[in-house]
Design brief:
Elements lengths: L14 H13 L2 E5 L6 H16 L3 E5 L29 E7 L17 E8 L10 E4 L6 H11 L6 H14 L10 H9 L5 H9 L6 H9 L3 E3 L2 H4 L2 E6 L9 H5 L1 H5 L7 E7 L7 E8 L5 H7 L3 E2 L3 E7 L2 H12 L1
Parallel strand pairs: 1-2, 1-3, 3-4, 4-5, 7-8
Antiparallel strand pairs: 6-7, 8-9, 9-11, 10-11
The chain binds manganese (II) ion (MN).
InterPro entries: DDH_dom, DHH_sf, DHHA1_dom, Oligoribo/pAp-PDE_c-di-AMP_PDE
Pfam families: DHH, DHHA1
Protein name: Bifunctional oligoribonuclease/PAP phosphatase NrnA
């Protein structure tokens, strides 16, 4: 398998590297767009925006993700959700599979088996840890979101970013930038362009980010009560962590669980924040771990070393065992 279109981490990402995506779209008559498991608004926003663009060109397209069975509630208002198909209905053979916001084949879950049935696999992403598993890879590790990468591809492809597509792209941009906290030159230019289509940026952000059932509040009380500070972690820079057991979050959705890290990471005394989330297989003590850092630590490297991946300041991995052991492993990995 020959990979093309990859970029080294510190090289500027040019139109020539994006053009390979346009070439792949123009050569295809049937396309599957795959989003990652436990989808967030960047992977779904990317999947639906691309699905809408392909559909308008008359190209047969399915958009899907392996799990859970239903789209998280906060994303059900996004345009293009009629393009979503259940995982077991995803075609076995197509010209082109496009994965969006997926750093590795593991992020595809049970749908990873579809990769073998495609002539071309195009990986569009911005994760630093991306394993470049496509036959064509368009991975801009400096991009704010995968939707920001797609916006540039659409321009090269002469695809109009209308209100529906802008809504999907903005969904990924506003969430992956943490409501425009993590930005770079050009981020607000893209945001302005999307807003100028007439989308309601305030409503989109509120729906995706500031919208929790009442049960979120007592859950936070319990979970934040578990928070611990390891002041001497990473040479005294500090680690703060909290533990989320299944019982704490019963009846709540993924958006509620994923919001916890954004509160934990605000502790002034800690450079690194972790949230240990107990997964379904609780008897085996299995955990999904979210990591965040502020400045000095590249948690993408830390998470990759522990079997996961992500971005410089936001990453994750899975592990099993008692919490004390997981904290010890994490502290050892932080050095
Ligand atoms: Mn993303």
């Amino acid at each position: 398998m020959t990979a093309t279109g990859s970029s080294a981490v510190d090289e500027p990402f040019g139109d020539d590297q994006l053009k390979v995506a346009v070439d792949a779209f123009e050569a295809a008559t049937s396309v599957t767009v795959l989003c990652h498991v436990q989808p967030d608004a960047d992977t779904i926003g990317s999947g639906l925006a691309l699905g809408l663009a392909l559909e308008r060109r008359g190209i047969a397209v399915q958009v899907s993700f392996a799990e859970p069975d239903r789209l998280p509630a906060s994303m059900r208002d996004l345009p293009g959700t009629d393009l979503l198909v259940p995982a077991d209905e995803v075609a076995r053979a197509v010209d082109l599979i496009v994965t969006v916001d997926c750093g590795s084949t593991g992020r595809l879950g049970s749908l990873a088996d579809r990769l073998d049935g495609a002539d071309t696999v195009l990986v569009i992403d911005h994760h630093r840890s991306n394993t470049r598993f496509g036959t064509v890879n368009v991975i801009d590790v400096k991009a704010e979101s995968t939707t920001a990468v797609l916006a540039r591809i659409f321009d090269l492809w002469d695809t109009e970013i209308d209100r529906d597509i802008a809504h999907c792209l903005y969904a990924g941009l506003v969430t992956d930038t943490g409501s425009f906290r993590w930005v770079r030159p050009g981020t607000h230019v893209l945001a302005e362009r999307l807003l100028a289509t007439g989308i309601d940026g305030g409503a989109i952000a509120r729906t995706l980010l500031d919208n929790h059932p009442f049960g979120w509040l007592p859950m936070l009380s319990t979970v934040l009560g578990s928070a611990q500070l390891v002041a001497d972690a990473h040479g005294g820079d500090g680690l703060v962590y909290a533990v989320v057991r299944r019982a704490d979050v019963e009846g709540l959705g993924s958006e509620e669980i994923e919001s916890i890290i954004d509160i934990v990471r605000t502790a002034t005394e800690a450079e690194v924040a972790a949230v240990f989330k107990e997964t379904e297989a609780s008897t085996r003590h299995e955990w999904a771990v979210s990591l965040r850092s502020k400045n000095a630590v590249d948690v993408s490297t830390v998470a990759t070393g522990l079997g996961g991946g992500g971005h410089r300041f936001a990453a994750g991995y899975t592990a099993s065992g008692p919490i004390e052991d997981l904290v010890a492993s994490l502290c050892a990995a932080l050095g």
